[in-house]
Specification:
This protein is α+β, with helices and mostly antiparallel strands. It has two helices and eleven strands; from the N terminus they run βββββββαβββαβ. The protein binds zinc ion.
Length: 186
């Protein structure tokens, strides 16, 4: 950040009085606002249909042309479930019924938190969109493991197929570190 989004003056990066972290701060001569930056929530679905899952081939950067589950940044004024359903519609026109929260990942090195819901496809009327080159159902043996966009997608799919064999789908929580390929979805 170079300029204050409240008044347009230049900002400095320092620890404000009484705080313990560096923040972008507008000078006291101007509006003096402290600009707090917090992690962003990414919410999405793992859409399932019989023994298959729905994946989208990204039509946008980053990771153009690679496969992902529908997910994106949560918007103001919505719940994580609403965001997951919205992203699934925007990316795949998928009609889904959310089953449960299935995976929660903390990615502190890129300031992101993922909420992934297991959701059931209500029909197969999904199709590609401006955000997806292709949308398709995959069984475990057909998953394009080498062409997945994000590590969280790979982890979620592996867990899902393991859990599917046991027919038990507990919530998976994991903190991912820098070994994970950095990236952000939208
Ligand atoms: Zn200002």
């Amino acid at each position: 950040m170079k300029f204050c989004s409240s008044c347009g003056s230049t900002v400095t990066f320092h620890i404000p009085e009484g705080d313990n972290r560096d923040r972008f701060v507008c000078s006291d001569n101007n509006c003096g606002v402290i600009h707090y930056e917090n992690p962003r929530i990414i919410t999405g679905c793992l859409p399932t249909y019989q023994d298959k899952v729905l994946l989208c081939k990204r039509a946008i950067e980053p990771r153009y042309g690679l496969w992902t589950i529908p997910a994106g940044f949560m918007e103001n004024g919505e719940t994580t479930e609403q965001g997951a359903l919205r992203e699934s519609w925007e990316e795949a026109y998928a009609n889904l019924k959310i089953d449960k929260l299935y995976a929660l990942y903390n990615l502190p090195h890129i300031n992101q938190v993922y909420f992934i819901y297991k959701a059931e496809l209500l029909d197969t009327s999904f199709k590609s969109s401006s955000e997806s080159l292709e949308v398709a159902l995959f069984s475990e043996e057909d998953i394009p493991w080498e062409e997945l966009a994000f590590t969280v997608v790979e982890k979620t799919l592996k867990r899902y197929f393991d859990d599917h064999k046991k027919q038990n789908f507990p919530l998976h929580m994991e903190d991912l570190d820098r070994a994970v390929r950095p990236g952000s979805v939208r």
